[in-house]
Each structure stands twice: as structure tokens, then as C-alpha cells.
Design a protein that fits this description.
The structure is a homotetramer. With about 350 residues, the first copy, chain A, is of the alpha/beta class. The first copy, chain A, folds into two domains: about 60 residues, Phospho-2-dehydro-3-deoxyheptonate aldolase, domain 1 (Alpha-Beta Plaits), CATH 3.30.70; about 250 residues, Alpha-Beta Barrel (TIM Barrel), CATH 3.20.20. Chain A contains eleven helices and 14 strands. In chain A, strand 7, helix 3 and strand 8 form a beta-alpha-beta unit. In chain A, helix 10 runs parallel beside helix 11. The radius of gyration of chain A is 23 Å and the shape is elongated. Chains in contact: A-B, A-C, A-D, B-C, B-D, C-D.
């Protein structure tokens, strides 16, 4: 942390700042610039609210020059985190594809879709059983019945399961059926919930909040990691900007940024990131080209009648074509995607 | 809902759209413009995902021309909602001031501050017992002990209590001590939580999410109202924008907008909205001038040593001066604020 | 400027950074923190692109700890800039009201409106003769004819004139008729234009760009000031955010922020800031309460037939009522607004 | 345009709205929904300010259901615009790569870089001679001398030239040397300038403003097209959002969106879009994968000593590697990129 004093700061104001820091167990390195006294703070500043310094008399401004997360940082752990579940490696050289319906609606639906996506090379089946909906009047999911269907479909087609858990209370139940616990964007800063996920026994798939900075996103990962759960997967799914043509603005630059700052794997979800089917395909390709460790795609065999997010779900044949394209793209950057099964 | 077909849309594409709507129990009014066929949809469209229409073949665009909330709308209830708790009326002619520390830290702190703010004319005491913190390493609040202190301080100085509830599980406990349940910005779209608040027995103070549109905010109010709890107070507390000089951008225009769209009272929180003490005073005045039904202000007798948000807390004498100023401003627009007690 | 090296930075990487700075005539102060080497840069860093440092090998991050503007800063000039034109003082204790139509449309229109706003206490008449329009098909203003009408109307009712200049080529012409040169939000970073304004002989009224940070806004003021024109008035007129209910989000917090960072007067324009008549009145009051040195308000005697921005123009009687309210608000914070004339 | 009346709108209010539209030469189709009267407006509404309708008494809301641009729309012209300059086709099947330094600094620099980028397969040489800079104290470009160097370098290595024109006055001069006139993001809504470009004899490369919606961007293209210049190339270069880790947020989804709405070619500029060298490569790949018709990349043989934007410039060998990767990616989606020359 660095504190720049005002040009006219008095000696007693400087003393006051030093005392303030001293009370918190921090030492100070004082240096004199051309126009300003600058104070460098030495010690663990992670508990300091920088604004407390900014409002002290005589202080011109204060700057945090270290990141507030530790366990999530590349500096703490140099090598990529690789999460192994069964024979699937997340965060390794292979780009992992998660696919499936937005919501589990009924058994045949999920079975049909699972078969299709498995054939095209997906490794993990998605599907919501508990649905967070903006409107209290919309379809809210099948609950545990949905979890059972999802597990059965995944097992039949040799897929892993990922599904959203909305609440602390649901962690145990959902963990019985799923391989990965998905945390929705709106829950990224639900702190009592993400703290509880630190004690969960399954990997956590942490979607970025629609207005979360990259630093806040990594701080939420830190909540999970500091609770003892080392298996966190990040997922970019679009941020809110002034542009409203698409539902959100998919921030693909976050992918190389996360790879620099953190050792955790990072996915992209172009289905939620764009909200419209014909934008999903180009953005899925772009995500792989940008270096994503995986993508999450909504697929539905009959999207016109889907109970949620039909508009952003691909038809199975579109998904198959997309898989063929991204297989080439992955190769272009030295990575691979599972082959089609026939 | 209005659907504009593409110039070249075929008759069979138009038929297909009409069928799609018919399946959902909606009727269609077809009209022919200069260049485009336009379909007007008649019936309850609240369950329709507008994107499902946008992706149908031959559709150029689709527009929702009604608001998705009902109970929260001014159209549903014309007169302002006035919430009476003891002798305090929220949403009436009086502008209500909520004040107190960010966190309840220890008994004397809360007592001292409660006495000060009551003297200056505040009607409601705020103070956090359960604190949502961006960092897992920061102070997380005193819990139930904090609630007890808060209640005792409020009772002694004839104030009401407002405090944050972070979680479905805490509603019952917190309701024992508080008069109003505060929902933090990050929980505004925690749907299982706000659904549960619809069954709570206390008024809900619903802060706007930092990236929530006004419509989403009113949809969250709708969750509470539709559960049977009619007492919802909205609170603007700053939105996230590209400008980072202040923590958030306080969107005061939301106040007259809410007053047009909804019958619910709307407050402003300039402490969180700006994050810096010397910006709180002008923005608190501005909120009253803009027509807020109340304001929420953080006050601390020793902000330098506050355990959280000291930088945005006013000193008691600053708070007193602010109260004097906003009393005049309220009068200028035909409203009132409680007198100072001596 | 402060540079934090990576934990594992080698001695030769550190040397390389120091050499890089040395080449630019800057000296370096090296200090050793708990985990990181930190380099403090001493000298004039205003020409350094901070990203050049961020990409050097071994650098973890770099921080600019001084503001890039000088002449516009409060540190450079402590006392408020007060601009005197005739008997009007801008930036002094009086809150100055600018009012008038969006566009000059025809002589009687401007005369009628000038008379009304002068009577209510406005000091400066606004009106566009050259109009920047989003659509090439919209009304583009009367040009010089409009300037003549505006001058005549202002002179008759003892008002000053402000009008927009869109282009370097127009500065001379517009300066013949106006007292203040208004720069529109979209031109705030039209650098060849604002550089030319540094040589203009009239004060410059610099609207904030809709996506300009406060720092960028002050940098644009710096362009004018560094050209030799000391008379710059800033004007907040709404920024672009995700919220689309109103045209823009009026960032009133910018007012106290500018007052802290700069000596220049700052106005607010709630007409463009909200875009809707019934939001203009509360936000104009809020601007005065927040400490604005003046406000700019669009007024039209027949807004239904206005050629531009009728929807955000007040009727003369609304303007009169607003003036009565803000006179009281100004007094509450120790300032004044000119009385009504009868 | 569709107008929804309030539930309680009176017959005389409805009449008033109809009259208002009638005065403007528009006819109205009235239909009665379950709860609201809805008015459909028939005729050319491009000159109507929708807010004028929103503020009429009895109007609940008004919606524009057609796009305000015409010549730029896909509906107006179905087939892609292909611009041929020499043997280069922009907007055709080939993905065109523009590369070169940020600024032309001196002859050898530009020659060296031109040779390198030509060898790797670039078709167009970029380089700034007139530089718009945020700071009045920064390097402002070589002016006409820079244009000469650029032209000479391009001719020697069989490249086309693109360079920025900052001002109406410069159009003629710059047109003597360049093949394509580049308009910077900050000038996208400098209306007197872009109107003048409608009369220019060279294609216009129109960068998206950092806070411009896609609709506003197409409206600016409309200014050029309506002036008679049919050759407009759009370029996404990052928008301003709350995320500040990167300079801007590159909105790659704009690429498929533009392809749907318009017939104009669309490029991406990942150098300005990210601002940091190691983010340029993945985002350039992503742009091609998303379907861009071309990319613009800053390359410098000695970026550490570049006079501007060194931090976002690729080394020639990085550029070469990037070209190899995007050649494969282009093929994966059925497009091509020029081969490397040896």
C-alpha cells in the first residue's frame, strides 16, 4: 500500500497517518518525491480498508499495490490447477465441453439431449433442477426429481453431471446427485453460501456475477478455497454493460486475464453470455480461440417448446457442427477436444 | 407484446408465429404497416420469454409493451403505500432518517451513537450484526449479540431498529429483534431468500443491486409482495458504472422514476452510494431534494477506529448539521423532517 | 509512479526496469517489502504510458500515484476560479441559472422564452444554432441566423448568451455572438477542437462526455487551459450506464468530487441528464443541493411543437416554480440565487 | 412505433395523441387490448423523437419498433458490401489483416515494420500521422511527413494504406496518401466531420465509440452512406465498462450482431480493445473465430521504445505466429487468410 500526502501536508498530519498504521501493526517507509511525501506501507494490509487512509487529513490519495486474494493467485500456486473427476481432467490440455438443456423438464427430454451431446464429444451434462428466475411467476424447476433424471441420463451416456445449487440448504442434497456444484452469477457474492461451499465435497463451478470485477470474482473463489475446497472452476458468462442488443456482453478477455492472475481453470458460457442462439455459435468458437479451458453450451432437441431459455439453446445438429469447428480451433493453439463418437 | 415481421416474411412464417402464441393461449391482432406486418399479442404475456419470439423464422424483432411486475406497479395501486410502525410513518409526508453505525461493535459504541442520532431527529437506528464482506478475512459482525445491543440502544432512545438479514435461515432470529428487515444489494436477486421474505412478518427494506435495472428491482419487490408481505421499502444505494472515483454512482434519478412506476416508498443511502464521508453530505441533501421518502446515513462517534466503513461514516456533529440543512430542503418541497430534540 | 516487481523477479529484470526509466530521465527509489521489491519513480512521469512498465519482464503491476492534469488541479490553484462576464460571476457564491430552448427555432419563440426565463431569475440564455444530431435526417439548426436571434433576445432581456460551437471552423463566427462557448459531450475528446479552444477569447463551457471519467474530463479542461484560456466551466450532463429507463444517469456525485480535485466551477444539466420533463425538476433541485455552481435548464413555451428535445423542456410556469424551490435550497447551504423580477 | 395508453387514459387524451401524430403526417391504427388501448403508428417515423410521445398526457409508454437507419441495414441491401481496392477485397471471403505501428515515428521504423507484416500476410499497412492523445503533453504525430513515409513503405511492400483522419480539414490532405480513411472512436459522433466523410472519395473505416450502442454506430455509418459514400467498414475496438483490468472490453458479440443487422464489413481491433500485448493474441484469434471480416493489429519491431502504444504492440515474430494460428481458424469456418510470403 502506498500513500501520497498532499503537497501542503503538515508534519503532524504525516505523524498521524503513521500512528494510524502503527496501531494496526504495520510499518511505514517514508520517501520524499519532487513534490510529495510518499509513504510505503509494509506488512499484511489485507484487512485495511483503503478508504480509511484516503479520508485522513493531509492524505492526497492511497493505492493498494497488492492483490487482496492469496490462495487464488498464480503467485501462491504457479502451476495450473487440474481437477480430475473420473477420467475427465478439467484445467489440463483438453478443452472440456459441458452441454445439455437449460432445465431438466422430463425424463425423455433429458435422455434424448444427453445422448446427442455425448455423441458429439461433450464430457459433462448440464441441466437445472432448481431454477433462479427473475419473475416469481416463471417455471422454477423440478427439484430433486430433476436431479434424479439428470444423474440417470449422465450415467447412461457416460457423462459427468453439473447442476446449479441455489442455497446453503441444498448443498447436501444436490451433492448426492451431481459431480460439480454450479454457482449462479447472482449468487457469486452471496457470502454465507459461498463460505459453506468451502466445506462441500465437490468441485465448485463459480460463474462470474454480471457486474463483478475480475478481482471480486477471484475474491469469491478465495472464500471457497479458504474454506478448504481446492477445486474451483471459474466461468465467464457475460457482464452487464450499456449495450442491450444482447442480454449481456461476453467478456472473453477475462480468459487470458484469469490465466495470468490465477491458477484456476476458466470456462465460458456463450449461451447466457449472448442469450440468442445464432450468437452462441460464433462466441463459443471465440471462447475456445481465446484459450478457455472449457465451454458450457445449452442444447435442446425442441427449443421452441423448452420451458426456459429455448431462444439460446442450440439444436443438436448445430451443436455437432460447432464441435467440429472448435476441434480444429483447439488444435490451432495446441489443445484438443474429444472426438465425435459413432 | 408486439412482433414486427421481416419485410420478406412468408405467410407460412407468420402462421407459425401465430400458432406458437396460440399454443400458449394468446391471441393475435394482425396489422399491415407500410413495410412490415406487425402482430399485436393479446392476453397475459408475463410467462413468455420474448427471446423465444425473436428467434422464430421471419421475425425481425419483438417488443414487450407492458411491465412484468403487477403488485408493485402504480397502475395496480394508485395511492402511495404508507407503512406505519409505532408512531413512524414511512412513505407519508415526513422524510424519515435512518442513522447509525455500519456495524454494531460493542455496547457503548452503539449506545453513544444512538443517543446522538436520536437527538438530531433520526427515527430509526441502523447497525449490522451479520456483515456480508467481500473478503473472507474481514470482520463478519457480532451476530445475535449485536442484535441485542441494537434493540436495547433503540429502545432507550425511542428509535425503531433496522438491520440486515443475510439469509433465509436468519429471518426468524433477526425478526425477533428488528422492526425492519434490510436486504443487501448483493441479495436483491437471491430468489429463494426474497421469496421467503414474502412470508416474513416485518417490513422489508430492499436495496437495489449494484447492477440491477429499475425493472429488475421492482421484480424483486414483486417476489416479496406476491408472497403476501405488502410492506416493501426500496432503497437506492448506488450502481456500478465505469466511473471509479467513487465506489458507486448514486442514481438519484431512480427516485422520481420509482415514484412514477410504483406506489412503494423509496429511500437513498448516500453512505454506500459514495463511500467517502465528504461526499455523503452533499448527496444526502440531493436525495432529499430529489424527493426521497427517507435516507439512510452511517454515523460513528469514532470513525477512525470503526471496524467497517469508517471512511463513509459521518461524525455526530456533521450529522447534526446535515439534519439542519435537509430540514430546510424538505420544507422547500412541501415535506417535513422531525425536529432536533434538546 | 510505483512499480511492484514479481516475487521471483530477477536482479537483471530489476536493472532493466531501472534503465528503462533512466533513459526517460527518471530516477528510481528502490525499497524491499515483505514479499516484493517496490520501485518508486521520481521525476515528471506525465509523458510515461504506464502500460509500458506493466509489460516489462518481472513487473507485477505499476501504479500512477499522481494525477495527469496540472493546471486544472486544486493543488495548482487553491482558490476557486471565478469568471466574471458583465455583472455575472460564475463560480462565486451565487448559483447561476442558464435557461432557454434546446434550439433557436424562430425569432418570436426565442424572444418569448428569453422574457420568461429572465423574469424568473435566469442570468444566461441558452439556445442551439448548430445542432449535433444522432440522425442525419433530423433538424440541424438555423446556423448564423439563429445566433443573431439569440443575441438579440439576450440583449433585450439583459441576459448573457451561451451556445454550442461544434467545430474548430465555427469558433470565430460563434464568438462574435456569444458570451460563452459551449462544447457538447460528444466533442469533449475531439482534441484538435479543444486545443483550438485554448486560443479562443471566450470562456468555455465543457460538458462531460457520456463515458468520460472525471480524470478524462479534467484532462480535456487541461487542453483548453494549457492553450492559454483560463476560463473553463465544467458541466455534468449524465453518463451512460446499463440503466436505460432514463436517457443517461446524472452523476451528481461528480459535483463534490470536482470541487475537491479542481478549482474550476461545475454546473449540472438535468435536462440532458434525464431526458424527460418530469425528472428534470427533482434533479435540478438535487444538483443545487449537491453544491453545483449553476444549472442549465431547457425551457420552451410550446414544447409539444419544439423542433428538438421538447420532451425534456420545462413549461415557463414549471421553470418559475423550480426557481422558487431552488432559491430556498441554495439558502440552506449558504448560497444564493437571483430573485424573481416583476 | 407503438404507443401504449394508460389504463385510465381518457378519450380526449387518446384524441390528443392521434392529433399530434396527424400533424406530423402519420396515421394511427387503434386497437384495444385486455387492459390497454394500443396505438400503432403508420408512416415514416424516423424524424419523431419518441420521448415527445412518452410525455403526452395519458401515455403509459411508447416503443420504436423499427430501426432508425436505412442505408446501413441488411433489409435495405441484402448482399454483403464488398469493397475492392486494387487486388484486395474487403468484406469478401478472405479475412483481411491490417498491421503496422501505432504511430509513424521515422522512416526506417515504418519500412522495417512494413516489410515484416507484409511477409506474414498482412494486406494493409496502418500507422498514425495525426494522433489524438488524451494528454496535451503527449506526442502528437509527424503530420504530412508521416503520411509520406507510410505511403512509401506500403508501396514498396505492396500493401494498401490506412491512416486516421482527425478532422474535416484534413480529409483532402490525408486522401492524397491513403487508401482508407480511418475514423477514431472519439470521432464516431463528431457529426460535422462524419457528414463531410460522406463526400470523401475513399472508403471510411469507422471505429465504434467506446460508449456507442450498436444502433448509434450504424447511425454514424448512415451519415457517411447518406452523403453518397457507399464504402464503410465498421471496426469494433472495445467498449467502456465497469471492468478496468483491461483498457476496454472488446465486445466480440458485436461481430455476429452487425452481420445480422447490416451488410457492411466488420473488423476488430484487439490492440486497442485490450491495451496489453499478451491479451492481443488470444483476442485476435477470438475475433477471427467470431467471424470478423478482418482484424487490425499494432506491430512494432522495438515496442519498448515506441512513441505510443508500445505496450499493446506485438513483436514481428509474435505477429507471424498469430498469423499462422488464425490461418487455421479461418479455414475452420470456411474462410481464408493470405499465405506467408518467403
Amino acid at each position: 500500500m502506498v500513500i501520497m500526502m498532499e503537497k501542503e501536508a503538515t508534519e503532524s498530519q504525516i505523524e498521524h497517518v503513521i500512528e494510524f498504521l502503527d496501531e494496526k501493526g504495520l510499518s511505514v517507509h517514508r520517501s520524499t518525491g519532487v513534490e510529495h511525501i510518499v509513504l510505503g506501507v509494509i506488512g499484511d494490509v489485507s484487512r485495511i480498508d483503503i478508504r480509511d487512509l484516503k479520508v485522513l487529513p493531509g492524505v492526497s490519495d492511497a493505492y493498494r499495490i497488492s492483490v487482496p486474494y492469496k490462495l487464488a493467485s498464480r503467485e501462491f500456486k504457479h502451476s495450473n490447477t487440474v481437477i480430475r473427476i473420473g477420467d475427465v481432467e478439467i484445467g489440463g490440455n483438453e478443452v472440456i465441453v459441458i452441454a445439455g438443456p437449460c432445465s431438466v423438464e422430463y425424463k425423455e427430454q433429458t435422455m434424448t439431449i444427453a445422448e446427442e451431446v455425448a455423441k458429439s464429444g461433450a464430457k459433462i451434462l448440464r441441466g437445472g433442477a432448481f431454477k433462479p428466475r427473475t419473475s416469481p411467476y416463471a417455471f422454477q424447476g423440478l427439484g430433486e426429481e430433476g436431479l434424479k433424471i439428470l444423474r440417470e441420463a449422465a450415467d447412461k451416456y457416460n457423462l459427468l453431471v453439473i447442476t446449479e445449487v441455489m442455497d446453503k440448504d441444498q448443498i447436501e442434497l444436490v451433492s448426492e446427485y451431481t459431480d460439480i456444484l454450479q454457482v449462479g452469477a447472482r449468487n457469486m457474492q452471496n457470502f454465507s453460501f459461498i463460505r459453506a461451499l468451502g466445506k462441500a465435497k465437490k468441485p465448485v463451478f463459480l460463474k462470474r456475477g454480471i457486474s463483478a470485477t475480475i478481482e471480486e470474482w477471484l475474491m469469491s473463489a478465495e472464500y471457497v478455497l479458504s474454506g478448504g475446497n481446492k477445486d474451483v472452476i471459474l466461468c465467464e458468462r457475460g457482464i452487464r454493460t450499456f449495450e442491450t442488443y444482447t442480454r449481456n456482453t461476453l467478456d472473453l478477455t477475462a480468459i487470458p486475464v484469469i490465466h495470468k492472475l490465477s491458477h484456476l481453470p476458466v470456462f465460458a458460457d456463450p449461451s447466457h453470455g449472448t442469450g440468442l442462439r445464432n450468437k452462441v455459435i460464433p462466441m463459443a468458437r471465440a471462447a475456445v480461440a481465446a484459450g478457455a479451458d472449457g465451454i458450457m453450451i445449452e442444447v435442446h432437441h425442441d427449443p421452441v417448446h423448452a420451458l426456459s431459455d429455448g431462444a439460446q439453446s442450440l439444436y443438436p445438429n448445430q451443436f455437432e457442427e460447432l464441435m467440429d469447428q472448435i476441434r480444429v480451433i483447439a488444435k490451432a493453439i495446441g489443445r484438443k477436444i474429444a472426438d465425435r463418437k459413432n
